[in-house]
Amino acid sequence: MKTLTRMFLSIIVVALILMYTASRLNVSEGYSSGNTLTIYNWGDYIDPDILTQFQKETGITVIYQTFDSNEAMLTKIEQGGTTFDVAIPSDYAISKMREENLLIPLDHSKLPNLKNIDPKFMNQSFDPDNKYSAPYFWGTVGIVYNPNLAQGIKFDSWDDLWNPKLRNNVLLTDGAREVIGMSLNSLGYSLNDTNEQHLQQALTKLKTLTPNVKAIVGDEIKMLLANNEAAAGLVFSGDASEIMSENDQLDFVVPKEGTNLWFDNMVIPKTAANVDAAHKFINFMLDPKIAEQNTEYVGYSTPNAEAIKLLPKDISGDERFYPPQELTDKLEVYDNLGKKMLVHYNELFLQFKMNK
Question: What is the pTM of this model?
Answer without folding.
Answer: 0.80
